[in-house]
Structures are given as structure tokens and as C-alpha cells.
Design goal:
This protein is mainly α and about 110 residues long. It folds into two domains: about 60 residues, no CATH class; about 45 residues, no CATH class. Helices cover about 60% and strands about 5% of the residues. The chain is built from six helices and two strands. Strands 1-2 form a two-stranded parallel ribbon. It is globular and about 40 Å long. The protein starts with a helix and ends with a helix.
Length: about 110
């Protein structure tokens, strides 16, 4: 679900009023990257980073893949196997959309 203009304006105001040095955005890919790109000009934050499920991993809400899977750079596949109904669309369709966004940004430069 995309945020309404009103919700988005309220979030940006709260963020800017707090004057953080770093903003961690954890909406999941590609939503967090799209949100950062759309709002970077409105944010008065020196560093903005999309962190995906990092907070879920650190809090223990999500179990990370075994080390050998991470070493093979296949944690995404492990997560897909753990939550296929939730992640298949994000990984396959969202991945294509994410690449389109990256390419569009590269072509603008």
C-alpha cells in the first residue's frame, strides 16, 4: 500500500522536526527505495538508507539463514523458502521494478 499524500507529509514533517543524522527506512524492497527517491528532496537528513528486514533480524523476529547459506550469498533464497507466499512477488516482480528504477536513475545522470 502506498502512503497517502497526507500521511507522507506528516511522516516527513515528523522526521525533519526530529533532525536525525541518519534515517533508516525499513519498508522492504522496492518500496523503501521508491520512497527514498520520491522524498529525498523533502528530507533534511544527511544520510538515508533502506535497510529492509534488518530490524526484524536484529530483534529476533526473523531467523537469519545458516552461515553457509549466507556465505553462498543465497539468503534471499532461504527467505523465499521460509515465506514463499509473501516474498515471491517481491523478489521476482519487485526485482524487475527495482532494476527499472535503478536504470532510470542511471540514465538521468
Amino acid at each position: 500500500k502506498k502512503f497517502s499524500d497526507e500521511e507522507n507529509s506528516k511522516m516527513i514533517k515528523l522526521i525533519n522536526d526530529a533532525q536525525p543524522d541518519v534515517l533508516w527506512v525499513s519498508f522492504g524492497c522496492p518500496k523503501q527505495e521508491q520512497w527514498i527517491i520520491e522524498n529525498k528532496g523533502k528530507l533534511k537528513v544527511p544520510v538515508v538508507a533502506g535497510v529492509g528486514a534488518a530490524f526484524d533480524f536484529f530483534s529476533g523476529n526473523l531467523k537469519r539463514a545458516p552461515k553457509f547459506v549466507r556465505d553462498l550469498r543465497l539468503e534471499w533464497f532461504y527467505r523465499l523458502c521460509q515465506e514463499p507466499s509473501r516474498l515471491w512477488r517481491r523478489y521476482f516482480l519487485g526485482g524487475i521494478q527495482f532494476m527499472k528504477i535503478i536504470m532510470a536513475q542511471k540514465l538521468k545522470k
